[in-house]
Structures are given as C-alpha cells and as structure tokens.
Write a structure and sequence with these properties.
The protein is α+β, with helices and mostly antiparallel strands. It is about 15% helix and about 40% strand. It contains three helices and 14 strands.
Length: about 280
C-alpha cells in the first residue's frame, strides 16, 4: 500500500496564538503545527494510533499575517505499510509571479505502534552548580512571549546537567484532545532554550525531534513537572531529551532528540546576567 494525497486546509487563528512571536512577527508554534498535521491524519486514517511520533522537522516558521483570522495551507500525507508522513505546506508568490511551495513542518507516524520506552528519570537529582530562576524573570528577560505562552511556574532549576521545572497546562482555547495540551511541551522547550542561553550563549528555537511518546495526555489547567537533559552540543545547535510527568509522578511524555538551533543568525542574544561565568 503506497499512496500520496494532498488536501487544502484552513487553520483558525485564535487570538492566543498572537502571544507567540519572533522578531516582531507572529509565528505558529511548533506544537500547534503538530496538532494541525496529526489532526489531518486522524481525519483521513482512523486505523492509526497517535501516541508515538518520529522525525519531526520544523524547517521554517509559518508567519501569521496581521489581523488574519485564518490561514490557508496544504497538508500532504504519504502512506506505506509501515508509516505515514505528514507535511504542512504553503505557497508563496514571488515578485516575478513565480509560485514557490514552502514546507513548514513534517512528522512521521508509525502505522503500528511499536514498543514504547518506559525509563523515567522522575525527580532525578539535578547535579552540578545549580541556580534557580523565577518564572517572572524568565518571561521578562529570557523568553519574551505573551501571556498564553508563559507556562513555566515557580522557580526553574538549572545546572550544566540540565533543567527541572514546573509547568502549567495553560488555559487558552487550544485543541488538546489529540496530543494533550500544547502548552506543556512548549514550555519544556522554553526551559531547553534557557539552558542554551546560560551554557552555550545562544537563543535557540526548536527545529525538530527524533521521537515523541505520549503515555498520558496533558491537560489544560493541569500542573506538570519536566526534566530536560542536554545530549549533544555544537556551535549553533543543541539536542536534548525531555520527560514530562504529572505531579503524582505518572509519566506523561518522553521526547528524544529535541533539536534546538539559533535561527536568528546571532541577532538574538542572551542577557549578560544569565550567562555562566565559564562557557
């Protein structure tokens, strides 16, 4: 079985999405593009499970036009016997009148769910020289998003070995039925960004992940714990492993190979106070 289909789709632009921006432009968050892609697959293939995802890529931002209430995109879905690959595309017209197709996100979904990871580092001690950063300081100085995307709560603990933080499930009207609350994974990526600012002197945005497994869907208005481990580091790219739990200790998600990159070509710089004395 091999097939490829393409569907036009309109994304509703709710007001809360305008709290997510980059260099003055509103951008659709990576977590929301995943919801769009997976929802489209679910509408067309009812026989597929949605708790395991591979090789997600976010190669370019999807910029939301000012005052728009919807955006027209295309979803391309390719399926074979083992997997489904979904891609989110738009078409841009150049000044010369040439249409260019742009890919903004893609994700791979196995047709049959394999064995999921069960290892959990719940409340594993954060070693190394650790400092705590209040959430108010994070969203004032380090992650300058609007209210809907300020979901790290309390103090974030950070050391060379990683990050530990508490996260709110958010309360805006995002879709949460298929992947859980998007605000929880989004806030975990904020924590990874802060680690990059402190220990690698870059402001990094997510550009993909290797694997995401969902054991329990996070809920809006819920509260969660997250631990982030740095795995690989190079000049402009960082890779992390992430775990998210309920406050009780029940495992919600594992994300392997979360890749973060400086997409501003150095235009965005961390504030001096967050930088570790030795990088």
């Amino acid at each position: 079985m091999n097939e490829k289909k393409r569907w036009p789709q309109s994304i509703k632009i709710s007001p809360y999405l305008r709290d997510h921006h980059f260099e003055g432009k509103v951008i659709l968050p990576a977590v929301e593009t995943l919801i769009v892609l997976v929802s489209s697959v679910a509408e067309n293939y009812s026989d597929v499970g949605f708790n395991c995802f591979y090789n997600a890529r976010f190669p370019r931002f999807l910029i939301i036009p000012e005052k728009s209430t919807s955006m027209d995109v295309s979803i391309v879905i390719e399926r074979d016997e083992e997997k489904i690959i979904a891609r989110l595309l738009t078409v841009m017209s150049t000044k010369a009148g040439i249409n260019r197709t742009l890919e903004h996100a893609s994700v791979e979904i196995p047709v049959k769910s394999g064995e999921m990871m069960t290892n959990s580092g719940y409340r594993e001690k954060l070693g190394g020289d650790c400092i705590n950063i209040p959430a108010a300081t994070i969203y004032r100085d380090l992650v300058n998003f609007g209210e809907a995307y300020r979901n790290i709560t309390g103090d974030l603990s950070i050391s060379p070995e990683g990050v530990f933080c508490c996260i709110s499930g958010g309360n805006s009207n995002a879709a949460s039925d298929i992947l859980g609350s998007p605000f929880v994974f989004d806030a975990a990526m904020h924590a990874a960004c802060i680690w990059g600012q402190r220990y690698h002197d870059i402001v990094a945005f997510p550009v993909g992940f290797a694997k995401r497994e969902i054991y329990r869907k996070t809920k809006k208005d819920g509260f969660y714990l997250s631990r982030i481990w740095p795995e690989t580091v190079n000049s402009d790219e960082l890779t992390f492993d992430v775990q998210i739990w309920e406050e009780s200790g029940a495992l919600c998600e594992i994300i392997k190979g979360l890749t973060m990159r400086d997409v501003s070509s150095g235009r965005l710089q961390p504030p001096q106070w967050i930088k570790a004395t030795t990088l």
